[in-house]
TrEMBL record:
It comes from the Eukaryota. The keyword Lipid biosynthesis does not apply. SUPFAM superfamilies: TPR-like (SSF48452). GO terms for cellular component: cytoplasm. InterPro entries: GPSM (IPR052386), TPR-like_helical_dom_sf (IPR011990), TPR_rpt (IPR019734). This is Tetratricopeptide repeat protein. Signal peptide: none annotated. It is found in: Cytoplasm. Keywords: Cytoplasm, Repeat, TPR repeat. TPR repeats lie at residues 27-60, 67-100, 107-140. Pfam families: TPR_12.
Length: 209
């Protein structure tokens, strides 16, 4: 059902994208198509649409659309295991977001970079990026972004076998997830917290999670 609705939406947006004459609007429409294909797991199609978005955005000097396209491309590169490409796209995403002083886009770019570094096993770089993400999210009062940053930091510190730090960050993320009623995030962090307690030989605490 949802897949069929998504495909109907895709067909409508495709018609709209071709008919639009304003380049910024056309770029945004291609970006929506890229996001839809990304969600459906159609990564090659997603890349094609994000590249069209990026090209149009550059043509009309629309930095916001450039940032969106670079973010989308980097995330798809991550999912396809093309981490070097993902890093290049997210570094450019961060550069543009910083130039525009767009804190929300900066925070997302740091998150994306942190995720890519984590996947590459560059844990120290991942921590630096997620700490920047956390600082920006705190400054903006973005609790969802803070939860994601705490979760990533907890996971990365666990990978580094620094279990006390992992536990500290996961507990902070869990507290926010509970307030926001983010049940999936809450379940995921409880699982990670239990694993960190277990690795830290805190068996009673692990059983509680």
């Amino acid at each position: 059902g949802n897949l069929q609705q998504a495909l109907v939406c895709f067909e409508k947006r495709l018609v709209v994208a071709y008919e639009l004459t304003d380049l910024s609007s056309k770029a945004a429409a291609y970006g929506e198509l890229g996001t839809l294909h990304k969600a459906l797991g159609n990564y090659e199609q997603a890349i094609a649409f994000f590249e069209q978005q990026l090209s149009l955005a550059k043509e009309c000097s629309d930095r916001e659309n450039e940032i969106e396209a670079l973010s989308g491309l980097g995330i798809v590169n991550q999912k396809m295991g093309e981490y070097s490409k993902a890093l290049r796209h997210h570094e450019e995403e961060l550069r543009l977001a910083t130039e525009l002083r767009n804190q929300k886009s900066q925070a997302r770019a740091y998150h994306n970079l942190g995720m890519t570094h984590e996947l590459l096993g560059n844990y120290e770089q991942a921590i630096v990026c997620q700490e920047q993400n956390l600082n920006l999210a705190s400054h903006m009062g973005d609790r969802l972004a803070k939860t994601q940053a705490y979760s990533c930091l907890g996971r990365t510190y666990h990978a580094l076998e620094n279990y006390p730090h992992a536990i500290s960050f996961l507990k902070q993320g869990l507290a926010i997830a509970e307030v926001l009623k983010r049940t999936e995030d809450e379940a995921r962090m409880r699982h990670r917290l239990g694993m960190s307690y277990l690795a830290n030989k805190q068996l009673e605490a692990a059983q509680e999670e």
